[in-house]
Amino acid sequence: MKYISTRGQAPALNFEDVVLTGLAPDGGLYVPTHLPEFSVEKLQALRSASYQELAVEVMMPFVGDSIDRETFTEMVHDTYAAFNHDAIAPLKQLEADVWLLELFHGPTLAFKDFALQLLGRLFDYFLAKRQQKVVIMGATSGDTGSAAIDGCKRSAWVDMFILHPHGRVSEVQRRQMTSILEPNVFNIAVEGNFDDCQRMVKASFADQSFLKGRQLVAVNSINWARIMAQIVYYFYAALRLGAPSRSVAFSVPTGNFGDIFAGYLAKQMGLPITQLVVATNRNDILHRFLASNRYEQAPLEHTLSPSMDIVVSSNFERLLFDLHHRDGQALADLMKRMSTETVSIEDVAWQKARALFDSAAVSDEETTRVIGERWKRSNELLDPHTAIGYKAAIDCRRDPAVPMVVLGTAHPAKFAEAVRKSGAASDPVLPPFLADLMDREERFEVLPNDLKAVQSSMVSALKL
Ligand SMILES: Cc1ncc(COP(=O)(O)O)c(C=O)c1O
Ligand SMILES: N[C@@H](CCOP(=O)(O)O)C(=O)O
């Protein structure tokens, strides 16, 4: 399988090279040249596959000849052995034909573990083969950071710098990152917001000269392997609920548009998904775009669902590429305009987007109300991001006969403030392996919202 840039001006890469990169040199994001197809017969044959078996079937075509099947199968089994539920991604019934796909049974209690546990193993495999050390640089609004650190902290091949917005992630999220004291892990709290962190990461990928020859590698969803691993749980949930004989709908709490883009790809690959709901918080640029065909940036707002406090949604570019017939030049022009002005796309492309996605924006008040109500009704504690997914699912549902799956993206104990405000329960409890989290020593550096300051801190930590 080959990968091309959404902006059309970068060389095509194979899977190994695409895993060990970030942005394409032309500023675009890598996408596969084509998607594997899963026929009805093939889906039927996978109905009773375990999560791990399915993961190999879904991902192997993307991996191609970069890893042999036996080695990749072992890697996948090892990856999901780190999860704390036998089903890996269990489905829980919330009400008649509304299901919660619990994606928080990994080591850091968020859906990011699905891809980042695998990515850490992919890095080790390729870097050991090359005998090469790389530098990871990532931006996080809370969950990617801890999942990346957990996935890569034991690697001899990486030094890792994770930027989070100072004071804008939950205390549990911060401690999950900053209490990892391995010498190759560096946490930087930036006096800015997530978009500022992500901007610095992208600028560093675009010009890596400050690293004096060391190579940067991405852990954010600009890295194709992140998206690839997230496609699998859409297949898993749909097959468990009766696909291919039965269609399924998904509601996805959305920030950087990676998770829902994986759902869109699953649909393109043949999974009978009849509805995809983009669920946002007050940072609702994607909802506003889908409602009005105006892509208009608004200032980032801080909400009770901090992991989705994102305005510039990286992966939206991958969708726009498809909506523009994969025309790299058209995309390069569009992305340039989108960064400075309010943009509308051609009506046909926008109508296509509206046919693919429904959307809703959910306020903090509605989020806490939903958490409280769900707790009263069934003692089910939703984290604020998942609560947004649930509310959007109910508001946007097209066909009650089609099972609606809400992606449960994080464990409620990561977001005690929102849960407390909902009046749902006393503090949600962390699982035993994190019971002492609040007592662990922390290490992080606070830096101004300034690219040069961040890069020079990296250079001195790496002793370059
Ligand atoms: C808990 C949680 N839910 C939802 C999201 C949104 O996912 P995505 O950025 O892939 O849209 C994130 C992170 O972005 C998250 O951490
Ligand atoms: N919500 C994310 C933000 C980064 O998104 P990513 O999927 O591109 O890594 C986080 O929790 O860090």
Largest sheet, spatial ordering of strands:
3-4-12-9-10-11
Classify the beta-strand content into a percent band: 5-15%
Low-confidence runs (pLDDT<50, min 5 residues)?
none
Count of runs of 4 or more consecutive helical residues: 18
Instruction: Provide the CATH architecture of the domain at 85-107 and 224-422.
Output: 3-Layer(aba) Sandwich
Query: Quick one: CATH class of the domain at 85-107 and 224-422?
Result: Alpha Beta
How many beta-strand segments?
A: 13
Bound molecules: pyridoxal-5'-phosphate, the ligand N[C@@H](CCOP(=O)(O)O)C(=O)O
Distance between the termini: 36 Å
CATH topology of the domain at 85-107 and 224-422: Rossmann fold
Q: In which range does the helix fraction lie?
A: 40-55%
Kindly describe this structure.
With 464 residues, the protein is an alpha/beta fold. It has a domain at 85-107 and 224-422: 3-Layer(aba) Sandwich (Rossmann fold). Helices cover 43% and strands 15% of the residues. It is built from 18 helices and 13 strands. It has helices at 15-19, 40-45, 51-63, 69-81, 112-130, 143-152, 171-178, 194-206, 224-240, 258-268, 285-292, 316-323, 328-338, 347-356, 364-378, 384-396, 416-422, 451-461, and strands spanning 3-5, 30-32, 91-95, 98-102, 134-139, 158-165, 185-191, 215-218, 248-253, 273-280, 357-361, 404-408, 445-448. The protein has a 6-stranded mixed β-sheet, sandwiched between helices. Strand 6, helix 7 (171-178) and strand 7 form a beta-alpha-beta unit. The longest helix has 19 residues, at 112-130. The chain is globular. It starts with a strand and ends with a helix. Bound molecules: pyridoxal-5'-phosphate (PLP) and the ligand N[C@@H](CCOP(=O)(O)O)C(=O)O. The ligand N[C@@H](CCOP(=O)(O)O)C(=O)O is lined by residues 140-145, 220-221, 255-256, 258, 307, 314.
